[in-house]
Design goal:
By secondary structure, this protein is an alpha+beta fold. The chain contains four helices and nine strands. The strands form three sheets. It has a five-stranded antiparallel beta sheet.
């Protein structure tokens, strides 16, 4: 076989491999979209932003970047374009690699930015719950909404599990999808709880069948 013939053969093989790889990638993309929803742009922190850091054009270019993730994993309030953060400041430390949410940002001169004033001995507590999709559908905004937390206990003696309100009208401070390893339909929420409520719900998170959050009208 001549050198020219071998070169043509190698070129054809490379082209075939490229077409095959593109087909596999396209099929994978369709599979992801079918399983978790279409890909959506979200802003993530490429570098850590300390509390109070102001975001100008230079900071937006260096510390913020856009990624495309399945719709199921896009947190409520996630920014879609770094330009949405221009002129704002970090209300709390934003770790590198985390989603940048509207709730993470405040006007630079806004009083009390970065730490919700809970009062009544309440503290932020993070829990895994069901029903967070209803929060999004109801337009519940972290920092401005309250929820009831309902516990469904495991059944005993062959009966049905008892369902009861374990914490009523508690402040919603944040929520986001729990991630691909969590049970379907669950999410992570941050609630403003008293010590007694926190201990009760943390125990329920471990031993109850599920915790459900209900937005208050």
């Amino acid at each position: 076989m001549s050198r020219r013939a071998r070169a043509i053969g190698f070129a054809l093989a490379a082209a075939t491999a490229a077409v095959g790889a593109a087909a596999i990638a396209d099929g994978y993309g369709r599979g992801v979209a079918a399983g978790y929803g279409e890909l959506r742009p979200v802003v993530v922190a490429a570098a850590a932003l300390p509390r109070g850091a102001r975001i100008g054009p230079e900071e937006a270019a260096e510390a913020l970047q856009v990624r495309r993730v399945p719709r199921r994993f896009v947190p409520a309030g996630a920014l879609r374009d770094p330009a949405e953060a221009l002129g704002l400041a970090a209300a709390a430390p934003i770790p590198a690699g985390s989603y940048v949410l509207a709730a993470h940002l405040r006007s630079p001169g806004e009083a009390g930015a970065g730490r919700p004033r809970l009062g009544g001995g309440r503290r932020p507590v993070e829990l895994t719950v069901s029903g967070a999709q209803a929060l999004d559908a109801a337009g519940a905004r972290p920092g401005a909404a309250t929820v009831d937390v309902v516990v469904t206990a495991e059944p005993t003696g062959g009966g049905t599990g008892r369902t009861y309100v374990a914490a009523a009208a508690v402040p919603l401070l944040g929520f986001a999808p729990a991630g691909p390893e969590a049970a379907e339909g669950t999410a992570r929420v941050v609630l403003g709880l008293t010590r007694a409520q926190a201990l009760r719900l943390i125990a329920a998170e471990s031993f109850a069948r599920k915790l459900t959050v209900l937005p208050r009208g």
